[in-house]
Amino acid sequence: MSEFVRFIAFRYFTQSHRKHTLSLMSLISILGLSLGVATLIIVLSVMDGLIDETEKVVLRYTTHANVYKLIGNYDTYEETGKILSTIPGVLGSTPVVFKEVLLMSEKGLATAFVDGIEPEGYKKIADLSQLVKEGDYNCLNLKEKCRYVGQNLSKNGDLDDFLEEKPHILPVILGSDLAKKLQVKPGSLISLVTSGGKNLQGDDAAPVGGNLVVAGIFESGMYDYDSRYVYAGIDEIQKLLGIGKNVSFVSIKVDNPGKILDFKDVIMERVGGFPFAVQDWRDLHKTTFKFFNLQKLIMFIILVFIAVVASFGIITTLIMLVIDKTREVSILRSIGAKKRVIRGIFMLDGFIIGFLGTLVGSVAAIAICFVLKQIHFSISKEIYFFDTLPVRISFETFAAVIAATLLISVAATLYPSIKASGITPVEGLRHE
């Protein structure tokens, strides 16, 4: 762009016969665009925060991948663990028994997922022990020696046993929201019922049940986990279900979760392929991340229309500027200025409005995001997984919003600039 075009454009923008009217319209255009930019950046920053926080919770609280055996019993997990320990980058592995169960307390009823784990081995792959806010994680190791079990042994004879068995009391760790549903605390008794087991009646597996004591309550900060998961010792769960030494899968943790796909290929090669299969943390939480990314895309598309609406202010301002500068444009045309020069002048004026609106909106968005991070704005944990609003401004989101807004601003200048370039020398000077 030539120096001549820049000089005339800035002069037109700052000086006019209708200076007050154009200044007000320019200000309204800038404020309207800045509002759209700020809204877009804030909403997308919240969505980025949700995705980022979800990943942190998932990677901290859950395992990075699970190794399954698709056919037959999985009682060779120790051999699998030895193989996994030889893979560079694998920090640890441990067997897990997974089962959906029904839990009953004196005051509540809830469905949940119970994970039978090796307490010490699980510390190597997840931070569950550090998330326990009430009770004692070590009770999973102590088993019947756990103080909560001891406190309730005297009550064991009074437990209603409708399954013709009285299994001993198992210590468990459960999520904070699940504890609220059941209205229990460390030391409270819970009954468990689930399908399958060692007792068979005809072709169907009879339900099995057991008596549990709450030995600890964990809180991950993510509702989906805090309201559904229970942890117990793997030996007790295997005995309760009557599955012998079989497990559901072997969980692992790696040093770089972002490259989990590379680890999957290596693991499958080492364990010998089929009938083994590997499910990584992205697969395990695919629905959650797809939901957030889809919401982010939808919000971006919807909120871009705010910037589109604001761009009509730029069009109006430039049309008024063209009308005001008809005489000056005619003079420029009479001395040889080409149409592309005239178009460039008014497009630059529109770009200045768009740039100022984008700049003001970006600064406002950053300030508001900073405030939101400081005040810990509360949201519904049951709906949004978290109890506070997570905010993260990413460079990619910031750049995308700015690029989209500036593109819309430039597009808004096309019609007024084309009209201005069509002004002839006679049209503006006929009354002079």
Q: What is the overall pLDDT average?
A: 80
Nearest-angstrom radius of gyration?
Answer: 33 Å
What structural category arises from helix and sheet content?
Answer: alpha+beta
**Share of helix among residues?**
40-55%
Q: Low-confidence parts, pLDDT < 50 over ≥5 residues?
A: 159-166, 199-203
Rough outline: elongated
Report on the architecture of this protein:
It contains 19 helices and 12 strands. With 432 residues, the protein is α+β, with helices and mostly antiparallel strands. Helix 13 packs parallel to helix 17. It folds into 2 domains: 197 residues, no CATH class; 219 residues, no CATH class. Strand 7 and strand 8 form a beta hairpin. A 6-stranded mixed barrel has the order 2-3-10-5-9-6. A two-stranded antiparallel ribbon has the order 7-8. It is elongated and about 100 Å long. The longest helix has 43 residues.
Summarize it:
The chain is α+β, with helices and mostly antiparallel strands and 432 residues long. 55% of the residues lie in helices and 18% in strands.
